[in-house]
Design a protein that fits this description.
mainly beta; Umud Fragment, subunit A; 5-stranded antiparallel beta sheet; 4-stranded antiparallel beta sheet; 30% strand; globular
């Protein structure tokens, strides 16, 4: 069962925004369509959740996500995809994916994606030295 706040692995679709992300080095070559690598992100929003994206932050169900201000450019100064300020409800079968770093390439830049793209959940492993 999918839950908000879980870290999931998913295959990004082979759309222009993700193919450009691979060209820029945000993603490596991998086993997903378009030879993209799977991504690990927090599942931040599920169907029925309200998303408000502003110039200053991303809010899901009225709660601001940390480090969610969309940046205009990447670390090399190249422009990032700009999604206009908007408010919407996540549709059935879709999810909103967030990173935990201000420079994360996530749904702030590519929008919701199909939940069917999720391959699994990342779980921490306890190790001892």
């Amino acid at each position: 069962m999918l839950e908000r706040g879980r870290v999931v692995s998913f295959c990004p679709p082979a759309t222009d925004v993700f193919l450009e992300a691979r060209r820029r080095g945000y993603l490596k070559r991998g086993t997903c369509p378009g030879a993209l690598e799977p991504m690990l992100k927090v599942l931040a929003g599920l169907p029925g959740d309200e998303v408000l994206q502003t110039a200053d932050a991303l809010f899901i169900n009225g709660r601001a996500l940390p480090h969610s201000k969309a940046l205009k450019a990447d670390a090399q100064g190249r422009p990032l995809p700009a999604l206009a300020s908007r408010r919407f409800v996540i549709r059935a079968g879709e999810g909103f994916f967030a990173g935990d770093h201000p420079r994360s390439f996530d749904s702030r830049y590519f929008g919701p994606l199909p939940l069917a793209a999720i391959e699994g959940e990342a779980r921490p492993i306890l190790t001892a030295n």
